[in-house]
Write a structure and sequence with these properties.
With 178 residues, the protein is mainly alpha-helical. The protein has 8 helices and 5 strands, in the order αααααααβββββα.
Length: 178
């Protein structure tokens, strides 16, 4: 006796076309912009939760999003949360005051001012054996200090010598002819 052969067929309600038609009806035909659909104060509230890098990317969408992302309502809470107060009355007709203030504060944190210059000429700082503050002889040309402390003129032969790229090599490896 032979066993009947069972074939698996997909019922029509589970086909790809059926699922596509079901989903197609639920997705809107045109994409909706939440910045147009929500009131402006809610849009600012949503944008306040974004970090500065994401705000910069969002500002590239269109001019309206750029205007929203640079608005003081978005940047003022970010500054005040970090304890940065503008300290002056905000200009009424100027845009993005708090954003520029935020950028300046971050710049100042990442790039502190250099230490004050020491105007004392007796300080000689050496780095890798080379003198950083060059000495000048009586003619005004730069020289090298010798081991005895006097000035030596640089020889022209030494200045025309090609710079070595690695210890003991006169040319880089990809230029050297072998």
């Amino acid at each position: 006796m032979t066993t009947p052969r069972v074939t698996m067929t997909t019922p029509p309600q589970m086909s790809v076309h059926f699922v596509h038609n079901m989903i197609k009806d639920q997705i809107p035909k045109e994409p909706a912009d939440f910045t147009q659909a929500l009131p402006r104060h809610l849009v600012f509230k949503v944008l306040q939760y974004l970090d500065p890098r994401t705000l910069a990317q969002a500002s590239l969408v269109c001019w309206y999003w750029k205007w929203l992302c640079e608005h003081d309502e978005v940047w003022k809470p970010k500054c005040l949360r970090r304890g940065w107060d503008y300290g002056k009355p905000e200009p009424p007709y100027e845009r993005a005051v708090w954003k520029r203030f935020y950028q300046q504060q971050v710049w100042d944190l990442l790039h502190p001012p250099p230490p004050p210059l020491n105007l004392d000429n007796s300080l000689n700082v050496e780095e890798d054996g080379a003198l950083l503050n060059s000495s000048f002889d009586s003619t005004g040309s730069a020289g090298r200090r010798s081991s005895s402390g006097g000035l030596k003129k640089k020889s022209k032969a030494a200045s025309n010598k090609p710079k070595s790229y690695k210890l003991g090599e006169s040319q880089p490896l990809n230029v050297r002819s072998t």
